[in-house]
Amino acid sequence: MESNLNVSIDEYQGPLDVLLDLVSKNKYDIKKLPILDLCNQYLRFIDNIKSVNIDLASEYLLMAAIMIFLKSKFLVNKDKDEDVKKVTRFLTNRLTILELLNKNSKTLFELPKFEEEFFPNKNKFKLKVEKSYIIKDKLYDLLKAYTDIYRRNQNYTLKFSSIKLFSLKDGQKVLKDKISSYDDWFSLESLMPEKLQNKLLNKSFISSTFGAGLQMAKKSHDFEKTLVIKQAMPFTDIYYKKYD
Fold this sequence. Notes:
Elements: H1 15-25, H2 35-52, H3 58-75, H4 82-109, H5 139-152, H6 168-181, E1 186-187, H7 199-217, E2 227-230, E3 239-242
Antiparallel strand pairs: 1-3, 2-3
């Protein structure tokens, strides 16, 4: 029966984690690693751990073997060997990826935790969205728009009150009736009816009677002169008399 041996060394999670910690402590540039110094430091780390815990995981020992291989290549001045370049690139790429994972995982775990620092909305009702409006129009435009809307909602019924005004014929009839029964002078004011509904009818009676008097006071091929008019001064009362 096979058994998997998992060894945790000083909270490191593998040999690459150890290498990355060594790079960080020495402030090395991952893209320009001093491979020989890094090999020596890693091998010293393995020697120190072996004195405490002999049962090292195989992955730590494999990395130690790779480091010994690289160290031997550098010591015999074969640092330009293709195998060395491949292994160096491999370590550089893996360390770069591991560094990104550590940074991103740290950022991820710093985010607010679900149902600890933020909670879901368990309300069954729909979310109410309130709209806010920003009005940029002038006061005149707002009043005009309000007036247009108000007018559309109103039902107007236009009604005209019918008022029968006096005509020239009415004025002629009043004057003819008066001169037929009265031979002396009489004033226009004396012809006014006692009860008129409003000032408009009053003015209508005066204008119609005055106009009819002018027609009756002159002689033409259509009309015979039947009336005499006199007035003492401007803006005084007008007097009429039957023409003999």
